[in-house]
Sequence to fold (325 residues):
Amino acid sequence: MPRTTVGILRGGPSPEYDVSLKTGSALLNALPEDRYLVRDVFIDKRGEWHLHGKATEPARILQQLDAVLNGLHGTYGEDGTVQRILERSRVPFAGTRASASSLAMHKARTQAHLAQHGVRMPRTVHLSLAKVGTTPMGDLAQGVFQRFGPPYVVKPARLGSSVGVRIINSVHDLPQALADALSAFDHILVQEHIAGREATVGVIERFRGQDLYALPAVEIVPKRSFFDYEAKYAGASEERCPSTFDSATKLELEELAKHVHESMELAHYSRSDFIVHPSGRVYFLEVNTLPGLTEQSLMPLALSAVGSSLSEFAEHLVKLARDDS
Fold:
């Protein structure tokens, strides 16, 4: 039987470049050689595509592939840009389509969308560099303070992996934090900081006989103030799966992750992040349409907890991609 030729996209012009290289490497090693001919499709920081070490036009690469697994993270790879390239090429690919990817990558638009679907979220102010103009940072901070008090979470609206996220404990420190964030990112969010326990739940379509299968919640216990980039990828946190949440909370987390996936019209798989307040209320934080698959990532941990593996998952994604082409 001829092998299926699968391209693994990794790299890309994003601050999450290094994580993407690791996710791509994990996928390259996950597919069995007896059934798959795997191609490493490297995209450099300028957005130039490479195959066999040579710069090559995307269309020429994609026409050689039976399916694509997208190991890119952040801008370009997760915001609909590369999805539009894949859609135009008509190559089967796993993951969310371009329009829904664009929506999910923009945290403010995601919040507005999910608010219409009854999802509980932290109170949030969205600020854009274009609309702020010459407004003094002190006035912006006071506007936020009138909506809700500190502590605040300040983060870019269009990045993942907790890149650029800061916790601000005082309204007096907020003007400088806003100035720093707006100088680095064109869109930012200021959210109320919800105290509680962090959790994440992955979902997979058509897995183990279920239309939408929820993996068990992973409980995240940071060894620092919050689950930032270093905590995620430098071992500065403890991840528990199975978690220590009670049965009702586990079920609520799983149902919410599935609800987010369906209401945003995501495809094949996703992972949603939550905070569980001491009162038991669950708050949605954000959704990842291309969650990390590195050795330190949370989705492989949850897969292992249910007796699965990254190899089984990768093969399942190839099947989903080809079935839906």
Remarks:
- The chain has twelve helices and 15 strands.
- The first strand starts at residue 4 and ends at 11.
- The mean pLDDT is 94.
- The two ends are 21 Å apart (CA to CA).
